[in-house]
Description:
Blueprint: H1 11-15, E1 25-28, H2 31-41, H3 59-63, H4 68-74, E2 83-92, E3 101-115, E4 120-132, E5 138-152
Antiparallel strand pairs: 1-3, 2-5, 3-4, 4-5
Amino acid sequence: MASQPRPIPPDAEIRAIVGHQFPGGPYTVAHWENFLLTECTGAELLPGGMVHPVVLFHMPILGSRTTIGEMFALGQAESDYSIGIESYDWEMFEPLREEVPYAVSGKVVAAERMIQPEGRMYDRIQFQFEVAQADGVLAARTTITWHYNRGARS
């Protein structure tokens, strides 16, 4: 028996998630984690315990105490396959280093319903995560923009 498609969430519910903040918390990149991340890129370890920038794919999400699954649910994704990536924007203000605790916070900064001229509907949701040093200095910021595809509408 085929499953019924989930109903499209009302536009107002999607817009209402702007400002949603994740719990946030500390995150420390262990040496082994940096080693494995660097190794999978085919690069050499950076000097002085600097962390490879690829860490910004997962560190901000985990450090803000959320998961990709929770981010899917927040935007009421129709399925795991209904998400499209628009962009990942990484800003690095200070080098990230191994074995240094960082304070991570995250929130939803934009959410809007989009309808393409051909009728394709999606919700464009933007998450922003900040990674700060112990003294409060901003070390990195990531902005993730996803499309929660809702299908074609007539």
